[in-house]
Amino acid sequence: MTMETGTMKNGRLSLKRGCVDSIDGTSARGAEAAVRPGRPHILSKYVGQTVLAIGAHPDDLELGIGGTLAKLTRAGANVTMAVVSIPNHLRSRREEAKKAAKILGCDIRLLTPNKCSRVEDMKTHELVGLMDELVREFKPAAMFTHCLANLHLDHKLVYDACMSSQRLRYFDLYCYSPTSCHSVNVAFHPQAFVDISDTFQIKMDAIRTHSSQFAARGLGTEHYKDAVTLYGRYIGVDYAEGLEIMRLRLT
Ligand SMILES: [Zn+2]
Fold it and tell me: Other C-beta atoms within 10 Å of 37: how many?
């Protein structure tokens, strides 16, 4: 889906990405990502490979793993954010989603871009079919999806559908933090933590792009900073995102 060419310049690898056509006709990427040839990290295993990130609604991916996605694209992975439904404010949320994906450096695929809908309106086999199509098309090396510890039914349904898609082929599978516009207490116990100190500001910029969900409703975004600060303390860095590991191939 994405063409890349790399050139070395002043000791930095510069990756130039081509454009990608998505279901709604969006050409998402256009930016150059500069990568310092520094320490490899565990996510380096996805360099040059495709990573699929699935969210029930616009903003879920930014809230849950915006920093990780930005880190992956900057390392040279091809990341596509797939958004299953847009529940309301169709036009503005569609634009917010595209803008936020661009900030993160990801492609975006809106699965139902032309009408407001909720995941719970779909039949189970339709939702699983959508995830299956993505897996068949992208052949991802890794998938990131919702965790089960969510208050929102749509998030749990997407989790279930993604679990189902594991039968089609092997890919590493991770679940990201519960995503809610409010701070809530749910049983999420991540086993892995991604250092996002260098992409934290990008994550917050992407979150604030969803102004229909925050500024327009008088809601702040500070508790997302609190969460990644706490996870950062667990691993001795400024900011980190937590992941549940569902399956991971160590090679
Ligand atoms: Zn959501």
Answer: 9
Model pLDDT for residues 23-38, shown as the tens digit of each residue? 343 434 433 344 444 5
26, part of any domain? no
Can you give the pTM of this predicted structure? 0.83
Cβ partners under 8 Å of residue 159, min gap 6: 145, 146, 147, 148, 150, 175
Beta-strand relationship, 172-176 and 192-195:
unpaired
Tell me whether residue 19 is in a domain. Answer: no
CA 141–ligand 1 middle distance (angstroms) = 24
Distance 157 CA to ligand 1 centre (A): 11
The two structure tokens encoding residue 216: 């327009």
The H-or-E segment that residue 176 falls in is strand 172-176
Is the residue at 171 inside a domain? yes
Q: Residue 88: enclosing H or E segment and its boundaries?
A: none
Q: Give the count of domains, the chain.
A: 1
Model pLDDT for residues 175-225, shown as the tens digit of each residue:
999 997 777 778 899 999 999 999 999 999 999 999 888 777 787 788 889
